[in-house]
Write a sequence for this structure.
């Protein structure tokens, strides 16, 4: 695809984000849309956000677990950028209308806060562990500008890995004290048990997922930077949410996080 086409779709997705509207799948309109083109579209959309005054605070891995891959019929991981505008604190009450969320779904994750740069390729799980200041519980509220979540991998990649907003818990835990693959997450919706999963649901280990992303971005010349937040992927299936819902999660050895929707 040429730069004019890249800019057209990036602008279209940006406008849909700001208006809280959906679009027909890009893959239904561009048969030749490849993953590299989709990432270029995503970066154009991101640059529009940054021009508005938003700031990158980290990166996210998407579609890492088998449960999420089967739910979305997307069978490989992707990545996106997270920004200050997307970031909410624990126990936040998030207005779906004010934040222009369209078809939000909540997923529970382990988030990493980095204390050192990580530049791939060649990053290992041990490198990730050494570069991590702490881990914390996280809800990512994914959203899609693509109508009715009718996505292929190129659609979600172009749409910044279906980013919506995210909520970080208050606990800060040294990951060197934990077996992250064995950590169990339990998720509750409106006070009732909803789902559970282990850290191993994310590519076998959240450290593996973060190393994969560091190496993938490194090949594109994009580093992980000290101070950034890395969302490592969902341990549980995505759950649709609407105004009036409250989501809570607890991760063994790490802590709790909660979010409500208005």
């Amino acid at each position: 695809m040429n730069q004019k086409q890249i800019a057209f779709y990036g602008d279209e997705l940006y406008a849909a984000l700001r208006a809280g509207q959906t679009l027909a799948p890009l893959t239904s309109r561009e048969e030749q849309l490849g993953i590299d083109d989709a990432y270029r579209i995503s970066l154009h959309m991101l640059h529009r956000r940054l021009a508005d005054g938003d700031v990158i605070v980290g990166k996210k891995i998407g579609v890492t677990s088998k449960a999420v891959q089967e739910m979305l019929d997307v069978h490989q991981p992707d990545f996106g950028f997270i920004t200050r505008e997307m970031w909410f604190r624990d126990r936040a009450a998030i207005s779906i209308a004010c934040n222009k969320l369209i078809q939000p779904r909540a997923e529970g994750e382990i988030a990493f806060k980095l204390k050192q740069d990580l530049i791939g390729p060649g990053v290992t799980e041990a490198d990730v562990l050494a570069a991590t200041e702490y881990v914390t519980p996280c809800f990512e509220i994914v959203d899609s500008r693509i109508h009715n979540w009718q996505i292929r991998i190129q659609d979600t990649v172009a749409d910044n890995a279906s980013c919506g907003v995210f909520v970080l818990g208050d606990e800060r835990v040294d990951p060197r004290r934990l077996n992250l693959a064995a950590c169990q997450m339990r998720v509750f919706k409106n006070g009732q048990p909803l789902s559970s999963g282990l850290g191993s649901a994310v590519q076998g280990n959240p450290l593996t997922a973060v190393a994969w992303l560091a190496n993938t971005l490194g090949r594109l010349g994009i580093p992980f930077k000290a101070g950034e937040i890395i969302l490592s992927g969902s341990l549980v299936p995505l759950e649709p949410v609407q105004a009036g819902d409250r989501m809570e999660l607890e991760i063994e050895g790490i802590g709790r996080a909660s979010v409500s929707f208005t």
User: Anything to note?
Assistant: The two ends are 40 Å apart (CA to CA). Residues 114 and 132 are 4 Å apart (CA to CA). The first strand starts at residue 56 and ends at 62. DSSP finds six helices and 13 strands in the chain.
